[in-house]
Amino acid sequence: MVVLNNYLTLNTLKLRIYFTLALLLITVTCFGFVNRGRVDSLKTLVTSSLKSQSEPDTLRINRLNSLAGNYFDSNPDSTLYYAQKGVALSRKINYKAGIADGLVQTAHANYFKGKFKQAILEFDEAILIYKKLNDNTGLSNCYMLYGRMYNLLANYNEALTYLKLALDLNKKYKNEAYESDCYKNMGIVYYSEGQLSTALDYYYKALFIALKLHNKAFMAADYNDIGVVLQSMELYPKALEYYKKSLKLFAGTKDLNGVGTIYENIGEVMMNQKNYDRAIFYCTKSINIAKKQDDKDGMMSDYTDLGLCYGHKGQFEKAISNLDTSLQISSKYKNVYNEACTLIGFGTVYNMQKDYKNAYKYAMEGQSLAVKLGNLSVRSNAALQLNKTLAGLGRFDDAYKLLRQYIELKDSLNNNESIQKLTSYNLELNFATKQKQLAQQQLDRDILYQQRIKQQRLINTIFLIIILGMIAISVVYYRQKRKQQKINLMLEEKNREVVEQKTSIDDQAQKLNDLNTLKDRLISVLAHDLRAPLSTLRGLFSLLQDDTISHQQLLDMIPGVLKKLEYTSDFLDTLLFWINSQMENFENSAKSFYVKDIVAFEAESYHEQAGLKGITLIDSVPDDIVASADPNSIRIVIRNLITNAIKFSRENDTIEISAKRQDKQNYVITVRDTGTGMSEEQLNKLFKSKVNSKTGTNNESGTGMGMLFCKDLVEKCSGRIWVTSTPGQGTSFSFTVPLGVINETRLEVA
């Protein structure tokens, strides 16, 4: 996966001495609107200037460096050519600023082409010159490009060090455009480290500033980078939305590198969705652009993706050929991340062919580099492929160790992923709120501007009245009074809009606080209630492996472990289904179904559990009740209500599930028990995010989240849920579902 770098030059301080034509050209180019004719005009101007004068001067050097910067997005070789000419001429007359500007351009082009040692020498020399000249704009640009280079080399600490230096300079001198670029590049580094949540935070900071400045080039890059993070979280539809936004902004510009990057990212989404033909189509378009640009990083990623696509299609010769090309480039230019991905890709393709000898060689090398990178996703992929290879070679003990390592890495990745999905949702809410605030500030400025215009008109009118005389005063006064009344009405209307928008913002803030509370609760549950049963099971297996316990002791422990695992499985089913309902288009899943089918299935599943406690479970739902809702949501709600009733019922108690027509639009489904009941205080807290779960009659544990999920799922199905209870006498949970259409054949529940 590729994160877009926004290659923009930052030499505007020196451009003040340029001719008007050169200044306009460079300014427009930095924002992505330059066309081929204007670049050719500047090229002609520089060429004619070089031919017409025998001695170099600062003006021609500045033109050469500017032309080098303008060519980077479309032709990096031209950047290197003109920048080297600028440096040579600058050294001839000892023009320090020209030397530094030219070195930054040559270093940029050299590391883009994989010549990192040469780029480091040029960056270091440029930094020394900028410091002596006290040129903070040039220095911050140099720091930022230095940070990008170290990110490609997987030296993330050095990358962040230089990017933070650039950010501090831009904040100090209030350069918001370059501050946005710094945030974006810091997000790229955190993404490369596998810290997706932190990366997403920085990308949204960058995007907010870009929207504020209406900088389409920055906006396009930020939309792409956010899409990359969402793709890593497997939110593919959301990722494609951001990629399409980015591609639309890049349309018509000369930033071929950006367009190629987006094509590659779309291709990877297609590959993850197993649409390999479409993936090959987009990756081929991307690799053609990368070759034209001589973009080594892009070519490595594209060849690796093409190799995996052909491998999945069974075209192994093409797969090995593409992977071999990627490996040669990544090894030559010491790109650790791409080299690790390519080696793991080799292991994947050879495992598909059952050529475990070759697979072992590449998988071992890939795992070694993955450990060096520290990226959880790359390490888990390496462990999985090495596990398959060792199993194929018959080394089952070693394969088992790798499998355990893969499961541990995947558990860490999944735990992080759930937090990141919640973070993504919260960040989008924050970003939407900031956008509204920005729009409100612009509206306030417009109103103030209109007021000033009207005040000036009023003053002009007063002078006119004095000149014309007292006769016109009464007429003008009357007209002005009417105008003022209209203005007052407009101001009252605007104030009312401001109050309404403020109320809306407060509501959004309250929702955000509720989401944060829910997030903290979910994280607590995931960290404690769900990890504990798994730790118990792991400990049991460890004891069994070491022969620490006897067979009889193992049999005595199994019921308790199964009980905890059963609770964990039920809660995970509910939690995962609820999270899915939050992230996808839930409204389209409603359909007609027989309520009896769902209730009978769930009641049958829990008859044994109820019988063990001496509880009678009765299904009184009529056969002909047809509801229109999401059947999986209703199944989850009924399951939670039944398990909750069993939890708080005693021996000889009864649980009954019934359903009846409530009105013309709804049925009401009720789960009634004769158990311990609840107090009024417990009822008031039941559907709140801060509720604490009580233990059941047999000390059964819980998370307190089930009723909250039930409420949310019922409301998404256009229903409502309520509860009545008397302490010591029992509890009755009821909820409504819309009526469905009865078909001639029996409906099946999904």
Automatic annotation (TrEMBL):
Its EC number is 2.7.13.3. Pfam families: HATPase_c, HisKA, TPR_12, TPR_8. It catalyses: ATP + protein L-histidine = ADP + protein N-phospho-L-histidine. It is an enzyme of class 2 (transferase). This is histidine kinase. Keywords: Kinase, Membrane, Phosphoprotein, TPR repeat, Transferase, Transmembrane, Transmembrane helix. One of its GO terms (cellular component) is plasma membrane. PANTHER family: CHEY-HOMOLOGOUS RECEIVER DOMAIN AND PAS DOMAIN-CONTAINING PROTEIN (PTHR43047:SF65), TWO-COMPONENT HISTIDINE PROTEIN KINASE (PTHR43047). The keyword Ribosomal protein does not apply. The gene is sasA_2. Residues 525-741 form the Histidine kinase domain. PROSITE patterns: HIS_KIN, TPR. It comes from Mucilaginibacter gotjawali. GO terms for molecular function: histidine phosphotransfer kinase activity; phosphorelay sensor kinase activity. TPR repeats lie at residues 140-173, 180-213, 220-253, 300-333. The chain crosses the membrane at residues 15-34, 458-478. InterPro entries: HATPase_C_sf (IPR036890), HATPase_dom (IPR003594), His_kinase_dom (IPR005467), HisK_dim/P_dom (IPR003661), HisK_dim/P_sf (IPR036097), Sig_transdc_His_kin-like_C (IPR004358), TPR-like_helical_dom_sf (IPR011990), TPR_rpt (IPR019734). Signal peptide: none annotated. CDD domains: HATPase, HisKA.
